[in-house]
Design goal:
The protein has about 110 residues and is mostly beta strands. About 5% of the residues lie in helices and about 40% in strands.
């Protein structure tokens, strides 16, 4: 990964599973920034309690960690199943999809705020 002036590193993450559909599809390839601080609504790479690395949505800050959610309520797991994810287990923030449909990965905005 390339190092930036702030010390954050860039890398790639591959989507597996269906928990983030329709936003992300299995096999999507994402550009992620390790060491970035998430903002509510960002897509983040996390280490779950069973040590699985997964892509989830940073729903809100909770205690000493993040409450993460999935976009597909019928697939996968999220904080409703495993509780908050400690800050040190939020590994990266997704910034863009590089394959197969290149484009920025946008933060989900609460419709009440739009």
């Amino acid at each position: 990964p390339a190092m930036t002036q702030s010390g954050a590193q860039w890398g790639l993450a591959r989507v597996h599973g269906e928990s983030m559909q329709p936003t992300l599809q299995p096999r999507d390839l994402l550009l992620v920034k390790h060491g970035a601080t998430p903002v509510e609504g960002d897509l983040v790479v996390v280490r779950l309690p069973d040590h699985t690395i997964a892509i989830k949505r940073a729903a809100f800050r909770h205690g000493e960690g993040w409450w993460v959610s999935r976009d597909n309520p019928h697939r996968g797991i999220d904080s409703a199943n495993v509780g908050e994810i400690a800050v040190h287990n939020v590994l990266a923030v997704a910034k863009a999809r590089v394959w197969p449909r290149p484009g920025l990965v946008r933060r989900r905005v609460d419709p009440a705020e739009a």
